[in-house]
Write a structure and sequence with these properties.
By secondary structure, the protein is an alpha/beta fold. It contains 11 helices and 15 strands. This is S8 family serine peptidase.
């Protein structure tokens, strides 16, 4: 099939090429074990606090608030156990207004027109991606809306013959067989999913879908449908496109998907949106999420200052909470082609850069690298011993991953495309084992993966130099983790036909 080489990472539908971006590229543009099930913990409903003016509280505390005239949104980390009222008072005293608070993890969202808000509250407690972008503006504008085909206009030809990726992981299902259960919901934390696409219409769970761009969940359909990007629809198709003899077929065509919009129409993924997406998935009891992005305002954070610490802590708390609530989180390893192994000063093997990808680099997240059709680690895929858990087809060169887009079907390459193969396989396991905990699902994914040894020679350019170095051994290494995800192993074998003669 046709595709495009992954030359560099494209943020969103050809809008901009820069360090913060989607984890894919392709012809349509593109911009990221323990045993035993455990019972699901009770989940407290999200608490969205009423807006409270911060100025009176700040003035009462003797704080001189200086409004710049343009408010910015901040993610704020509090001491665990902080009540909503206490958090609101602290925000108000720092010249801000609290707009949403997640008491389960003591993380909130605030707005302030005072440029000193973060300093007032503490640089190790508050961070604004919006303010960071305004301080270092980029000359790009939102793209045009992703084309959506009229009803019945999506081509109906069978394209499964072009899905080399599904065959690579054993997910080439016989026609009409739809592995997976509709009761299993995969949260697609992305740019929105086209609910009208014929390959996705039956899988979409609108009641569990939401927009999270402000840091608070919005369940109106307009908030979670795609705007200028086909990215989320592509990811959703890889997970759950219908096995109906038309178009493409997903890894788990029998499961449901929820559209959780965390990426805006310029391709930005602000930390508060990512936190909201993870928390929403947990409160909606989604068994699996897929995050094919990494959070702004960094590409990969290689300088661990206070601002990175705030975002890391907020994301880590959200992931920890969602895991405890019963959600397995899967994420793309990024397309930076860097070694994500922690730096040597932490006692890990040498060679690591100390760079971190969020959320992929967090402990409870299943981080996925990408291979091409060869199969060898795609040149763009980041890697790292102790970080990468599994690998899956992401495409490379002329062989990208074919999936759904609002106008029909298109190939894209990237770790964005690899991650949903793993999320779909996790959904198959959750369907077969409804009581399995995230740790059990993860252990099963790793146990059933097909080991991929380090390549003897990784000279992709042919210049005589190794383009990356693979640490580890056959069963577990920095390029492929525990190996290539195996969807076939996650699906119970169909019952054998009864061959007894009928008299």
């Amino acid at each position: 099939m046709s595709g495009s080489p992954h030359v560099d990472n494209v943020r969103d539908e050809g809008v901009e090429r820069r360090s913060m971006r989607w984890e894919d590229s392709g012809p349509v543009g593109g911009a990221v074990a323990l045993l035993g099930p455990v019972s699901r913990v009770a989940v407290v409903a999200l608490v969205v606090c009423a807006q409270i003016s911060g100025t009176p509280a700040a003035q009462a505390a003797g704080q001189d608030c200086a409004a710049s005239g343009r408010a910015a949104r901040y993610v704020v980390v509090f001491d665990k156990g902080t009540s909503a009222d206490s958090a609101a008072r602290q925000v108000g005293a720092a010249c801000g207004t609290q707009t949403v608070y997640y008491p389960q993890i003591a993380v909130g969202v605030a707005t302030s027109a005072d440029q000193g808000f973060a300093s007032n509250l503490g640089l190790d407690r508050a961070f604004s991606a919006q303010a960071g972008r305004r301080a270092a503006p980029h000359s790009h504008q939102p793209g045009t809306p992703a084309p959506v085909a009229a009803a019945g206009a999506v081509p109906g030809a069978d394209r499964t013959g072009d899905q080399w990726d599904m065959r690579a992981i054993g997910a080439a299902w016989p026609p009409g067989r739809s592995p997976g259960s509709r009761s299993v919901v995969v949260g697609v934390l992305d740019s929105g999913v086209d609910a009208t696409h014929p390959d996705l219409a039956a899988a979409i769970a609108p009641g569990k879908s939401a927009g999270c761009l402000t840091g608070a969940p919005d369940t109106s359909a307009a908030s979670w449908l795609p705007g200028t990007s086909s990215h989320g629809t592509h990811v959703a198709g890889t997970i759950a496109a219908a096995n109906d003899g038309k178009g493409v077929t997903g890894v788990a065509p029998g499961v449901s998907v929820a559209s959780v919009k965390v990426v805006d129409d310029r391709g930005y993924v602000d930390p508060e949106a990512a936190v909201c997406g993870l928390m929403w998935a947990a409160t909606q009891h989604m068994q699996v999420t897929n995050s094919s992005y990494f959070v702004d305002p960094w590409g990969l954070s290689c300088a661990h200052g206070d601002d990175h610490g705030v975002v890391h802590e907020a994301m880590a708390r959200a992931v920890e909470y969602s895991t405890a609530a019963g959600t397995l989180n899967v994420a793309a390893a990024t397309n930076e082609a860097v070694n994500l192994t922690p730096s040597p000063k932490s006692g890990t093997p040498p060679g690591g850069t100390g760079c971190e990808a969020l959320p992929a680099g967090l402990r409870d997240v299943v981080a996925v690298s990408a291979i091409g059709a060869n199969p060898v680690k795609a040149g763009y895929s980041s890697y790292g011993l102790g970080v990468i858990d599994l690998t899956a087809p992401g495409g490379d060169g002329g062989d990208c991953v074919l999936s759904t887009v609002p106008s029909g079907y298109a190939p894209l390459c990237g770790t964005s495309m690899a991650a949903p193969h793993v999320a779909g396989t996790a959904a198959l396991l959750a369907s077969a084992h409804p009581e399995a905990s995230p740790r059990t699902l993860r252990a099963d994914l790793e146990h059933e993966a097909k080991p991929v040894p380090c390549p003897a020679d990784y000279d992709l350019t042919g210049d005589g130099d190794q383009d990356a170095f693979c640490d580890g051994y056959s069963a577990y290494n920095g390029f492929y983790g525990h190996g290539l995800v195996d969807a076939a192993a996650a699906v119970p074998a169909p019952p054998a036909p009864d061959l007894r003669l009928v008299r």
